[in-house]
């Protein structure tokens, strides 16, 4: 029996409350945990489950996502057969039909027709967790389900396992059935399909707003949460960048922080996530904040409950204070000076 799976990642999601982080990238490409992007988790889960053909269906601002994933080499998906595929939504398709849009899939039916895998695993791009999908596939086959949906705490994770032939049938007959996406199918109580639940018991974070992003980032500062997410048996793969170790100025105080490579830290950092290549000036204090790649914090600054996107420059003597419920967000490439802040 062919028990192989096809990976399908819907990267079309857009949440208005994340607008400040989505001006130059798709949700799938939002950085997290110092060196990763949101899509790294589901993509790594698929690869760790033996899936060697993954199709990504993006829609908005996906140049950054394509730059991050490249040929798929870092996930061992740069193959002559199968591998990594990008299928953008048509330019005229402006309607948001939900996760796993059948109209979007319909524009790229050749991919489904030509693939040799018997099953398709369809997932969103903005849930961070680590797992092996093979037990879910085994359960799906043993129970004879038409669709198995993965849940966490009895709520749908928007991850579905379906036989590819049934998926093709649902796509082709969408005009007759009125189903626009996978969610429509599993929520139709009058459907004659057998829908089964598969409960995932591990650590899960779903990123849908600035608050959930900020909370998830802070949770990962907990060693317990970190160990639950980053497990040796399920490595989270990402784009490799060769950068020097971080340098710390003598007298610098760093407490409970994630600090990536290539940084130069002269100030104090507490309860924060610092991405690659960040510079924090002398006399500055960064706490409960997220500082993304290549941003610069000047001297004698105070940053608390702040999110700095990539390439942000904070000039000397700037004070930015947010709150856990409403962190201050500075958009990519912006310059924040003391006069602007006064």
Please summarize what this structure is:
The protein is an alpha/beta fold and 342 residues long. Helices cover 23% and strands 26% of the residues. Strands 5-4-1-6-9-8-10 form a seven-stranded mixed sheet. It has a six-stranded parallel sheet with strand order 12-15-18-21-24-27. Strands 13-16-19-22-25 form a five-stranded parallel sheet, with no helix packed on it.
Fill in the CATH topology of the largest domain: Spore Coat Polysaccharide Biosynthesis Protein SpsA, Chain A
Helix content: 10-25%
CATH class (first level) name of the largest domain: Alpha Beta
Radius of gyration: 21 Å
Number of strand segments? 27
The overall pLDDT average reads 94
- Largest sheet, strands/sense/barrel: 7 strands, mixed
What is the number of independent domains? 2
- Helix count from the secondary structure assignment: 11
């Amino acid at each position: 029996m062919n028990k192989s799976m096809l990976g399908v990642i819907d990267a079309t999601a857009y949440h208005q409350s994340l607008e400040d982080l989505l001006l130059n990238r798709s949700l799938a490409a939002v950085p997290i945990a110092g060196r990763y992007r949101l899509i790294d988790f589901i993509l790594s889960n698929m690869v760790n489950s033996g899936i060697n053909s993954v199709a990504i269906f993006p829609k908005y601002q996906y140049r950054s996502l394509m730059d991050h994933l490249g040929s798929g080499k870092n996930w061992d998906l740069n193959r002559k057969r199968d591998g990594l595929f990008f299928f953008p939504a048509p330019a005229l398709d402006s309607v948001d039909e939900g996760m796993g849009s059948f109209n979007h899939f319909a524009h790229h039916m050749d991919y489904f027709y030509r693939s040799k895998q018997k099953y398709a695993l369809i997932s969103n791009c903005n849930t961070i967790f680590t797992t092996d999908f093979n037990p879910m596939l085994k359960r799906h086959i043993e129970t004879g389900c038409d669709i198995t949906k993965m849940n966490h705490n009895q709520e749908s994770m928007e991850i579905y396992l379906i036989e590819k032939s049934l998926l093709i049938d649902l796509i082709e007959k969408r005009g007759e059935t009125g189903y626009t996406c996978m969610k429509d199918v599993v929520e139709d109580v009058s459907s004659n399909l057998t829908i089964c639940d598969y409960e995932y018991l591990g650590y899960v974070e779903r990123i849908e707003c600035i608050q959930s992003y900020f909370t998830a980032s802070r949770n990962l500062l907990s060693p317990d949460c970190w160990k639950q997410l980053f497990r040796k048996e399920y490595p989270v793969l990402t784009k490799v960048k060769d950068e020097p170790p971080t340098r710390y100025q003598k007298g610098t105080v760093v407490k409970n922080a994630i600090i990536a490579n290539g940084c130069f830290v002269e100030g104090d950092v507490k309860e924060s996530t610092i991405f690659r290549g960040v510079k924090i000036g002398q006399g500055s204090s960064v706490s409960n904040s997220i500082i993304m790649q290549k941003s610069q914090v000047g001297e004698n600054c105070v940053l608390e409950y702040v999110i700095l996107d990539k390439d942000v420059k904070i000039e000397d003597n700037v004070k930015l204070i947010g709150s856990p419920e409403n962190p201050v967000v500075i958009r990519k490439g912006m310059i924040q000076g003391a006069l602007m802040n006064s």
